[in-house]
Design a protein that fits this description.
The protein is about 40% helix and about 15% strand. It has ten helices and ten strands. The strands form two sheets. It has an eight-stranded parallel β-sheet. A two-stranded antiparallel sheet has the order 1-2. β1 and β2 form a beta hairpin. The structure holds ligand 7PJ. Ligand 7PJ binds next to β3 and β7.
Length: about 280
């Protein structure tokens, strides 16, 4: 299997590592650290040197309780970085819910749109489907909206509800003209989910993998890891590695992480054990 990301075709023969770059003042783990474009660029290049297969740039915080970022501000933060990084050796993903930001990021050379709203905003499906580049899209499940999603998450059966939603969004993408080999699904750990929901989803990940699309898992440094370890956000590396390996063992093909270097090492060991293969990143 391979994933088409504009001018890149990513082989999915081994799990891929997506490095997170938040250029927001308020993201939960690295808010404010990379607001300076030079610092952001440095960090992206560091993650690529550490073996990241993709870089995901987010300019709007979707942390629980976050208020929306104006479009002009999101554009100002993200477009110059996509322009600077998209000529490099790995595809750049733009983490956005806004069609105008999607279009600008694609024009600036993004190889993927990562949308925590799963292209539900009016015009979002068209922004991705209508792009001249065959860029990839990650559609994620979220219950509610970031401002209120953690107030009272509730499901009858979290795995089947998330799976049903993702299957519907994949169909919507394909109906809009986005080819199957461009689509990635994501259960959206932490987005309108309790610790118990996140654990049930991780355990049930094979049911989502069975839909037949690559699955991305983002658990890195999230509050579930904090709840299980009692650690603050910058001390969750070991817990995050355990979660990343558990996701990959259940069929995830992309892990979205802050700690690229450590995750790449963990996956090299995991792969060698599991598949008898030593991969270069
Ligand atoms: C996710 C995301 C995730 C996808 C964030 C953080 C919180 N996009 N954006 N999946 N989480 N696709 O930076 O960890 O889990 S924002």
């Amino acid at each position: 299997m391979a994933l088409r990301c504009g001018r890149f075709e990513l082989s999915l023969d081994r799990p891929l590592v997506m490095g997170v770059l938040n250029v927001t003042p308020d993201s939960f783990s690295d808010g404010g650290r990379f607001m300076d474009p030079a610092a952001a660029l440095d960090h992206a290049q560091r993650m690529i040197a550490d073996g990241a297969d993709l870089i995901d740039i987010g300019a709007e915080s979707t942390r629980p309780g976050a208020s929306p970022t104006p479009e002009s501000e999101e554009l100002r933060r993200i477009v110059p970085l996509v322009e600077k990084l998209s000529g490099g050796s790995v595809p750049i993903s733009a983490d956005t819910r806004k069609p105008a930001v999607m279009r600008a990021a694609i024009a600036a050379g993004a190889g993927m749109i990562n949308d925590v709203s799963a292209l539900r905003a009016p015009g979002a499906l068209e922004a991705v489907a209508g792009s001249s580049q065959a860029i990839a899209v990650c559609v994620m499940h979220m219950q509610g909206e970031p401002a209120t999603m953690q107030q009272a998450p509730a499901y009858n059966d979290v795995v089947s509800e998330v799976k049903g939603f993702l299957a519907e969004r994949a169909r919507a993408c394909e109906a809009a003209g986005i080819a199957r080999e461009r689509i990635v699904l994501d259960p959206g750990f932490g987005f309108g989910k309790t610790v118990a929901h996140n654990l049930a989803l991780l355990r049930g990940l094979p049911a989502i993998v069975a839909l037949g699309y690559p699955v991305l898992a983002g658990l890195s440094r999230k509050s579930t890891i904090g709840a299980l370890t009692g650690r603050d956000v910058d001390e969750r590396v070991a817990g995050s590695l355990a979660a990343a390996l558990a996701a990959v063992a259940r069929g995830a093909t992309i892990v979205r992480v802050h700690d690229v270097r450590e995750t790449v090492d963990a996956l090299k060991v995991w792969n060698a054990i599991q598949n008898g293969k030593i991969f270069r990143h």
